[in-house]
Specification:
It is built from nine helices and 14 strands. The chain has a seven-stranded mixed beta sheet, sandwiched between helices. It binds adenosine-5'-triphosphate.
């Protein structure tokens, strides 16, 4: 193990302070070497206090995002077992596509501390401030028909929504957590998570599916122009959890649901659960179809994950593609 990890482990396993001298003796290195490694750990985000005559102390609450922290919270077989971490990148989806070309494996996870060109659907911007949120992309190489790929957005949405329920103890409902079909998670009707799925395929074969997820976890400043429709988990719950831990749980949940999806190639297995989370269920919504906008009542999803809209007594099936669905008075 490298010296830095050894020092980190010692800090983690010691209650209270560890003196510089203790570290020097234990690892048989100079004070300068210790000091350099401590600084490098601080640089990675570990909150280490240095107190004169006492030594170093690792604060429990450190919200560090890196490969080894995420791995320490994982219980998966294949998902997120290959992790690429970036302090800052243009977009984790772009990195994932590049990694696919270089032969990265099924289940590879790309994580970034911040994005300079985060994107939503239809080329929209995804605000990606550094250090307080999750920006991650899962690379999949599923043996499915290209028309089945969009269902994976719903699989991920449910995995993430369940993760919030389990880890933050948030209830499902208008004052809690809901899913805005197909790809957003809202908390008290404001967006906390967006999912962007992209794929590469030919006529009947998928090369890759990448699922990018942005989670507003510990953000305290929402940009002014988004305050009406966006919020963060910290702002709404007052809880500041570790990003690595949430990623670990989300990846566990996703692996389980993905395996179920691959058995049936449809969403029958999660339909009921997904619908419990569905925002505006049995309420009027506006469907922003590029051809013509219309209103109707959202009646749930079918086995393929399409949204069912009742209009003039008939049921219209809405395919996720390029369509947005809004509440009758606003975003939700
Ligand atoms: P629609 O409501 O039309 O279906 P969408 O919710 O699918 O759209 P996306 O394309 O997934 O939208 O996300 C991009 C939009 O999300 C932006 O246009 C902006 O309004 C909003 N947004 C951007 N950054 C954030 C963020 N960090 N948190 C919450 N919302 C954001």
């Amino acid at each position: 193990m490298e010296l830095k990890s050894e020092i980190l482990n010692m800090l983690k396993n010691t209650q209270g302070y560890v003196s510089g001298q203790q570290l020097c003796d234990k690892f048989n290195v100079s004070r300068t070497a210790i000091w350099k490694n401590i600084n490098s750990l601080k640089d990675e985000g570990y909150e280490i206090e240095a107190v004169r005559n006492k030594g170093y102390y690792l604060k429990e609450t450190a919200d560090v995002l890196n490969e080894s922290e995420i791995t320490s919270f994982l219980n998966t077989k294949w998902n997120a077992r290959e992790i690429y971490y970036y302090k800052e990148t243009d977009s984790t989806n772009v990195r994932a596509k590049e990694l696919f070309q270089k032969g990265a494996s099924h289940g590879t996870l790309v994580v970034a501390e911040g994005q300079t060109q985060g994107r939503g659907r239809m080329g929209r911007v995804w605000e990606s401030p550094k250090g307080e949120a999750i920006y991650m992309t899962t690379l999949l190489k599923p043996q499915i028909h290209p028309t089945e790929a969009s269902m994976l957005t719903l699989v991920m949405a449910l995995s993430i929504a369940r993760t919030f329920q389990e880890m933050y103890g948030i209830e499902i409902g208008q004052d809690g957590i809901q899913i805005k079909w197909p790809n957003d998670i809202v908390l008290k009707k404001k967006k906390i998570t967006g999912i962007l799925t992209e794929m590469s395929a030919d006529m009947d074969e998928v090369h890759y599916v990448i699922i990018g997820t942005g989670i507003n976890m510990n953000i305290t400043d929402i940009p002014e122009e988004l305050q009406e429709k966006a919020t963060s988990l910290l702002l709404e719950t007052g809880k500041k959890l570790k990003r690595s831990q949430v990623i670990g749980k989300a990846m566990d949940n996703f692996e389980q649901d993905y395996e179920k999806f691959m058995e049936s190639h449809d969403l029958k297995f999660l339909k009921e659960d997904y619908q419990k989370f569905l925002v505006n269920r049995d309420a009027q919504v506006r469907v922003l179809d590029p051809k013509a906008e219309y209103t109707g009542i959202a009646r749930g999803i079918n086995d393929k994950g399409e949204l069912l809209i009742e209009k003039n007594g008939e049921i219209i099936t809405v395919y996720a593609g390029e369509v947005s669905v809004r509440g009758i008075y606003g975003y939700v």
